[in-house]
Amino acid sequence: MKKIRKVLCTITAAALMAVTFTACSNSSSSGDGEKKGEIKFGTNAEFPPFEYVVAKGVIGEFDGIDMAIAKQIADDNDKEAKIENMEFDSLLVALDNGKIDAAIAGMTVTDERKEKVDFSDTYYNAKQVMIVKEDSDIAKASDMKDKKIVVIQGYTGETCVKELGYSYQSFKKGTEAILEIVNGKCDVVVIDSATADKYVKDNKGLKIVEDNDQFANEEYAIAVKKGNKELLDQINKTLKKMKDDGKIAELATKYLDAEDK
Ligand code: ARG
């Protein structure tokens, strides 16, 4: 009798262990069994200092201000941050069809986008600026009128130039646009201020021209699927903390000065 009980005990123990084991290996694909699930962040990692690819970044090969924020949001909720890198234009669709939980991509809040997604509190102020050659005579937005203008497809910079009514060429990546101006194939690139700072810092012979009468203030926020209040609250909580304790300002300085991009 005793022997049977002992055998039964062993079997039960083994079964329990098997269950625990399966549960562990199912809970996380990254090998970190401690975390309770993941948050899938979509981005377009072509936008230094907010998101770009390096050998070793803050989340996998992804680095930048936004990536550090994404990691913090996940950490604060005991989750793993996963990055889905895609074209900027695809982010809102990916939110809608559930491919990603949140889009963090230096994304400017606009009325048009607000119709499609919900935005978090804003975390960064930017504006459109013009990148020109050092000897350029472009001094204000209207000077671009008969110049060769380059924008990045789907960015607010494109909307701004479109509204001015000027013709332009659009590229998929900031780096492609910068190559055009560096090689003298265009006269001006219209893009967000912090990204422009980064490009001008890393490429010789370029300067930034601002026109604050023409280009309005823009604010970056994180987007979630309409109605995803739970995630939005979690995001806002972390953003508030990071704004209050100066962490976002600190990240901005750090990544603007980063030498690798
Ligand atoms: N702020 C601009 C916009 O919202 C450009 C953002 C580009 N971001 C990126 N990760 N490529 O349209």
- Which small molecules are bound? arginine
Percentage beta strand: 15-25%
Q: Over all CA atoms, what is the radius of gyration?
A: 23 Å
Would you list the SSEs in sequence order as H and E? Answer: HEEEEHEHEHEEHEHEHEEHH
Low-confidence stretches: 18-32
> What percent of residues adopt helix (DSSP H or I)?
25-40%
State the gist of this model.
With 261 residues, the chain is α/β, with parallel strands linked by helices. It has helices at 2-27, 65-76, 91-96, 111-114, 156-164, 174-182, 193-202, 229-244, 247-257; strands at residues 38-43, 46-47, 51-53, 62-63, 80-85, 102-103, 117-133, 149-152, 169-171, 188-192, 206-209, 217-225. Helix 2 (65-76) packs across helix 8.
